[in-house]
Amino acid sequence: MRDWPRKHHRAPAVLEVEFRTAGAFLVAYSSNLSKGGIFLEMDPPLPQGTKIGLRFHVPGGGEAIEVAGRVAWVRERGAPGEAPQPVGVGVEFGQFGVDIGEAIDRIVGTFSGIRIATLAELRDRAQLGRIIKSALSCQQLEVGDPDEARHVFAQQVELLIAVLTGQELEDDDAVQIMRLARAHLGQPIPTIALVSNAAGRAHAEDAGADEILEHPPALPDLQAAVVRLIGRPAAIR
C-alpha cells in the first residue's frame, strides 16, 4: 500500500462521508481491506488518480476519522441492457496513522455484527445460514411470516435476505415481507432476493427487491451486494 505524505490531507477534493450505521461503515471498510480503500457512489465520478481527503463520521463511533487517498478506479454508467451497477469510484487509502487505527479499533471492538433478517423455507434455512456466516459478520434474525417480520424489523434490522423458490404459494409471504421491509417506518430496509429460477426472479421483481442474486450466491457477489446496499454513504459532501 502506498504511503501518502501528510500534505495530501490538503487534497484538491475533500469529501465528508456519513454512513447510516457503524455496521455500514464496517461492511464497506472490511470488504475493501485488501485494497485499503472503499467504494463511494457519485455521479459523475471523480477522475482516476484524483487525490482526495476523506472524513468519516460514523454514528456511535465517536470522533470523525480522517484519511487521505486517491481514486484508484472508476465505474461508469453501464450500457443499456446490462445489470445496473452504482456509478462511483474505488478509493485507495493512504497509510493509516496510529490515531486513525485506534479509532477504527474502537469501532470494531464495540461492533457485534450487522443485524440481518433472513427469510427462507425450512429446507433452505440451514444452507442460507451457512452462506451468510461465511460471507458476513452479522446477527441473523429469522422471520417466517409477516407478523413475525414486523416484530423483527422493529429491532434495527439493517438488511433482509430472502430465498424465493418460484412457487406461488411458498413465495406469497416472502413477497409480502419484502414489501413490508420497503415500507418500514419511512426508512426502507434494503432487500436481497436469492432466486434459482425465472419464476422466483419475477416474484422478487414484483416485491421490489433491491438486489437479485442467483441461489446459492457466490460469496463475493453476496458481499458486493451488501456493500452496495448498506455500505453506501448516506451523504457525500
Description:
There is one protein chain. This protein is α/β, with parallel strands linked by helices. The protein has 2 domains: 6-110, Beta Barrel (Thrombin, subunit H); 114-230, Response regulator (Rossmann fold, 3-Layer(aba) Sandwich), CATH 3.40.50. Helix content is 34%, strand content 27%. The strands form 2 sheets. The chain has a 6-stranded mixed β-sheet with strand order 2-5-4-3-1-11. A 5-stranded parallel β-sheet has the order 7-6-8-9-10, sandwiched between helices. Helix 1 (22-31) packs across helix 7 and helix 3 packs across helix 7. The longest helix is centred in the last third of the chain and has 15 residues, at 168-182. Residues 1-12 have low confidence and may be disordered.
Concise overview:
With 237 residues, the chain is α/β, with parallel strands linked by helices. The chain has seven helices and eleven strands. The longest helix is centred in the last third of the chain and has 15 residues.
Present the secondary structure layout.
Elements: E1 13-18, H1 22-31, E2 37-41, E3 51-57, E4 65-75, E5 88-93, H2 98-109, E6 114-119, H3 122-135, E7 138-142, H4 146-153, E8 159-164, H5 168-182, E9 191-195, H6 198-207, E10 211-214, H7 219-230, E11 235-236
Parallel strand pairs: 1-3, 6-7, 6-8, 8-9, 9-10
Antiparallel strand pairs: 1-11, 2-5, 3-4, 4-5
String of helices and strands: EHEEEEHEHEHEHEHEHE
> What general form does the structure show?
globular
How large is the count of helical segments? 7
SS strand fraction: 25-35%
Tally of domains:
2
**How would you characterize the largest beta sheet?**
6 strands, mixed
- C-alpha end-to-end distance: 26 Å
For the record, the CATH class of the largest domain is Alpha Beta
The overall average pLDDT, rounded, is 80
Helix content: 25-40%
CATH topology of the largest domain: Rossmann fold
Would you report the number of β strands?
11
Spans with pLDDT under 50 lasting ≥5 residues? 1-12
CATH architecture of the largest domain: 3-Layer(aba) Sandwich
